[in-house]
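As a warm-up, study this chain.
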Amino acid sequence: MKKLQGRPGARPLSLLGAAALASCTAWAQTAPAGAPEPRLSLQSLDTVVLTGSRVPTRLDATPQRIELISAEDIERTPSRELVDVLKKNASVDVIQYPGNLSGIGMRGFRPEFSGINKRSLLLVDGRPAMSTNLSLVNMDQVERIEVLKGPASALYGAQAMGGVVNLISRESRGEVGGMARLALGSDGLREVRGRVGGKLAETLDFDYAGSWFGQDDFRMGDGQLRPNTAYSQHNHALRAGLDLAADWRLATRAERYRGRDIATPGDLAYGLTQQSNKDMDRDGLDLRLSGRVGAHQLLLTGFSGSQWYQTRTRTSSTPAHQPWLPFLSFAEDLRWRGAQLQDSWSWAPDRQLLLGVDWERAESSSLSYEPDGRRKGPFSADNRRHSLGVYLQNSWQLKASGTVLNLGWRHDRITVETLDTPFKTGFTPNRARFQTSNPSLGLRQALSSELQLHATLGQSFVSPSASELTGAAVTSFKDRVEITRGNAELRPESSRSWDLGLSWSRGGAALSATVFDTRVRDKIARDSGSRQDAQTLVFSYVNMARARMQGLELEASWRLAPALQLSAAGTQYLKARQQQGSDWESINNVPRRTLRLAADLRWQAWSGRLGLRHVGVSHDQDWVSGSGRQVSYPAFSVADLSARWQLRPEQELSLAVDNLFDRFYAEKFGFPQPGRNFKLSYRHDF
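Now compare it with the structure written out below.
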């Protein structure tokens, strides 16, 4: 896919943000003594999490750094998709385009929005989310989100170099109940959401959630209308659970996304000449059998899913395209299926051994078209990836000394195949096999009743993509032509990482600080090229590069008053650089600094949140001018506000204001986000 580069335009946040926080503080200090307390942003240590060990584990027994996004956080965050929730509540880097396309990166790994070989892993209830584009992931049924920072290949295999995001689904087992929500907002926003769930019988329970969303073209922070940004979509998710016996349960979950005629603008630098529209589908299905046999807790999961989209070119600056506009230009079909078998064996009172096997197959096929409708060869060959991983992790919880020690190891065998692809010439289908073993070590030590130390050491990897193995791309510039070919001899990228941190809590205050360091070797990069003729340069991919990421993560919360909670979090990169030829350069789309501040208020029937987010200077390639040089872009700061009024126990009125100060900013340069926008919602619980 062609990389696009836009223009800077972000403006810094004014002092209004600090003033607004101060106003909230003064208001909350007048709250009555009996007002309920807002939630701490740093979860209490007895919170149970799943992602760090693949089994339910208390947070104080988890050496990895895990950020939790609760149902309350999701409810209070002005958002339209998953990436909005993540960027405002967790230390992740994002890339986000208008037209429902987004991705994330963690701990210095560049955010990615496409491809089946990523460096940050997305899960739904512990199994692969089966989506390369985070904008298509259903949020209607999500109860909470766990964000694991740092390498996790020893538990999850490939794609977990930077970390793991695990979406935990709602599971209702009480009386049948639910809610319905209607919303209207800026830019013609219309939204209908609802969910219902509970027990249908003594042994049978279910959850259903669905939504429909639509909006017109939006206005940017500079007040200008952004043409070709309207879209609509609907989501559905259904879960059912059946108790087979006292310790055995069968459960299934299905999800569906449908988006039609999703308008997609081009880079601002190209004006109205690169507009397109997309149709996009996503489906996911899993079946789980869980039970206990003595000291063994068993889990068997099977899953399958697909992601499909097609793109129609609406406008073009190429004269030969004009008679055919609009025309179908590209389509892609991705499919996954796999199985997981896991045994958690409590072989002693304070010892647990986790053993498991993961199998997965992912397939990708694409179609490209000439403007007159004739097929042509796509950039990347059709391809398939098989993976088989065996893992084990032993945990020692020495409660007397407050020590938790995890030791893990995983071995993966991966086969990447490029397949015979209709209309694609200049390559030979090939197969590459990789084997890799990745260990991990984790320690959590209670230094006192208020202070804990956590540390991890691990290794991770990611396989080469099919385009890097077999791609053949031709890019024309004013003064030259560049041809980039794949290399079937590439090795997987690998990384070694460690982190060390302290967590402190006392009463209504909590603080966590973590230092991390990651070194990547065998990084896949484009070589220096060779000249085919006076105007043509030929490039390929090689395992010649390295990368180094080093930084500090901070998270803090403080109950300033009975009704007011303040929280802050951020990441400061000391190093985020990669080797490019003989030179070193900053990693693209990774800002040097990010900072999040929030004030949560609850007073009688009112509650709300004011959030501030600062994103520092970052870099990207200048693809617009054709120079390909790396350029830097200025920092930006944005704020959002949400407020809720409980009319009755079962009725609620809420207002969400995104981009409160109407900033002109972009998560991907040249593709600005909406300016200030409002959403008014009415919710009824039943």
